[in-house]
Amino acid sequence: MSNKIRLDSGSMRYNKKKWNSGYAIFFYKTRLKCYRSGAINKSKGEYNMTGLTKEIIDMLEQAPFAILSTATPEGIPNAVPIGAKKILDSKTILLSDQFFNKTLANMNANPRVSLTFWLDHAGYQVKGSVTIETTGPRYEETVKWIEEMGKKMGVPLASKGAVILNVEEVYSIGGPDSGRRLI
Ligand SMILES: Cc1cc2nc3c(=O)[nH]c(=O)nc-3n(C[C@H](O)[C@H](O)[C@H](O)COP(=O)(O)O)c2cc1C
């Protein structure tokens, strides 16, 4: 048999094993990071963080996009990708509204949202409440930031509002700790 088509069950089993062990190492490293950052209390197994850790902040900054989920007061869900995101402090994230439509209507009627982001197979789900600023220094800074972003992208972008997300809960969404509450 030619080398090109060595897809017999033996080689498949070998590759699967290799893939699984790589995955196990990745999950172990993610878990270790959570323990080290204090995200998981080893002795009690309870969440004990008071704000976003460096790991979470780094991931949100590095992830090119996040998913912003909102819901109508009746509970009809709506999830959209967002790219304009900034960390203000360990409990506050700023998003910018350029195109929000159903998202904006939902947030005005029901401020509870969820923001999900990930890199590779690890990520976080942040839950909290939003307030929307359309005047004031934070909005003015957002307008400038989005204008610059548009220039870099070669498209005209204009912020209609600064969405201030107050972080209330954080959950892990990757590996063996998926679903575990961190904050
Ligand atoms: C990759 C990507 C990034 C986006 N980033 C933003 C963003 O940062 N801000 C924004 O207002 N809309 C952004 N949008 C548009 C929204 O995802 C969405 O199209 C818009 O909110 C209208 O949907 P809605 O009616 O469900 O709100 C982005 C869309 C894509 C595809």
Question: Can you put this structure into words, describing what you see?
Answer:
The protein is of the alpha+beta class and 183 residues long. It has a single domain (4-173), classed as Electron Transport, Fmn-binding Protein, Chain A (Pnp Oxidase, Chain A, Roll), CATH 2.30.110. The protein has 4 helices and 7 strands; from the N terminus they run H-H-E-E-E-E-H-E-E-H-E. It has helices at residues 9-36, 54-62, 102-109, 137-153, and strands at 66-71, 77-82, 85-89, 92-97, 112-119, 122-133, 161-172. It has a 7-stranded antiparallel beta sheet with strand order 2-1-5-6-7-4-3. A hairpin with a 5-residue loop joins strand 1 (66-71) and strand 2 (77-82). The longest helix has 28 residues, at 9-36. It starts with 8 loop residues before the first helix and ends in an 11-residue tail after the last strand. Bound molecules: flavin mononucleotide. Flavin mononucleotide binds next to strand 2, strand 4 and helix 3.
Largest sheet composition: 7 strands, antiparallel
Question: Percentage of helical residues?
Answer: 25-40%
- What's the overall geometry? globular
Name of the CATH architecture: Roll
Low-confidence segments, ≥5 residues, pLDDT <50? 1-14
Subunit arrangement of the protein: single chain
Order of helices and strands: HHEEEEHEEHE
Strand order, main sheet: write it out. 2-1-5-6-7-4-3
List the ligand species: flavin mononucleotide
Fourth-level CATH superfamily: Electron Transport, Fmn-binding Protein, Chain A
Can you count the helices? 4
Total number of strands: 7
Q: Do you know the CATH topology?
A: Pnp Oxidase, Chain A
Strand content: 25-35%
Distance between the termini: 56 Å
The Cα radius of gyration reads 20 Å
Structural class: alpha+beta
Question: What's the domain count?
Answer: 1
CATH class equals: Mainly Beta
